[in-house]
Amino acid sequence: MAASLEELEQRLSHLRTELRGAVRAREKAEAARIRRALREAEAAWEHALEAEAGPDGEALLTEPPAPQASAPTGETRRKERPTHGSIPIREQVHQALTLLGAPAAPKLISSTYEAFFTESLVATKLASLRRDEERSFKAQGYARPYYICAALTHDRLVPARGLLALSTWPVERRIIGPLSPRTDFLTHAVGTAEQIQRLTTGGHSAPDAAWRLLRRFALTIPGACDAAAPQPDPARVIAAAHTEAAVHQQEDDQQRQAAAQRARSQLADMQQLFGAAPMRDALRDASGTLP
Q: What pLDDT shows up at residue 52?
């Protein structure tokens, strides 16, 4: 029988506590075993979440529910605005990634932008953006102040599937190692919480969608969420995210730095931004045909 979301969340919390103890005790073999179990439990949690949400589960993570009142809400008014004269999509992505602080997938970029800014960002439009940016860089070099580029895999230094980054970030920040998905998730949570803090301390109210996004992060970070509170406490989310990140940070940083050093010594500027060509593409470019 498949475990429920609540059981999986308890298991995740338990495993992270165990991992913290193993790392502090310098038990490398035990820490590696727990990390494998953590990745399996996180994957199971994602599947359970999708199953509970039903066929429209992915939309539920990014789209607000329809308003019950007849008067239009702020989010309804935002979606009703005409699209002419809108912010260029690359600028929208830049703003969302700057807020998140780490490489992210199009769906999260879209969710974040729509949660905090005034226009919608259709995730499917991001599919060709990185290729357009690569062509622009190839033609003009560093003519633009920034490019939407690729996150790079730590082992092959090829584009990490489905992840976008900013060219202004150092290579280390764009490398994706075995532990990076979790550390980047924690960075995303901190960036979201800090943006809500900036809004609320500046006398503004954070949109409902921003609070929902923060709750989505907080639910999978031990100690970040008070089930009895109507909204997550941004300061509590930040503190809990930093506490967990400390468990992974040293090893993740070492893996990223080693890969970044290889990237700087082996790759041209363009490849450092958009990744080395996979072997299959390299063979095709060399021979004109695939083997």
A: 58
